[in-house]
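Field reference: sequence -> structure
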Amino acid sequence: MEVIERSFLSQDWITLLFLLCFVLIGLMKLYKPQLLLGYTIAFFSQGFIEKRAEKNPSIFTPFHILLYLFNSIIVSITITVYFSKHREQNFLRFISLFAFVFMFLSTKLILNYFLAHIFDIEKKIRYFLFTKSGYQYTLSIWLLPILVFYQYWYSNVTMLLVFIATDF
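Structure field:
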């Protein structure tokens, strides 16, 4: 009888990404539970993000950094799932896509604030930028269960698009 080595390493990397997203949500809930709840129900509660933007909060708080990272991961997973043809999703392709999405969103954010500072319209544009990113964060929070549902139950991209369209 020959010994067969048993491997305990999972090749299902997308499950680990979903786990990382749930850990990020858990950390945000530990840090600021009311703020996470506000972002979660922002589509249904009138004016949460607008009131939040009027308070002029900093975007460099630990909560917003975790939310920004969560958003980048969810956008990257969505693009990866949408463009995968035969469910052959490559982790290296995801990492390169995540790096691109993260750099793109970071560059866009820095460029927005830099241009607002140059043209001396920081106070006017800050409200717009904060509400735009707030709704983007809310959409990414709502996309996580849809992506999990799609990944482990449906294999049809059309169903994913229908679920996303019903969120709007």
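Note: The mean pLDDT is 81.
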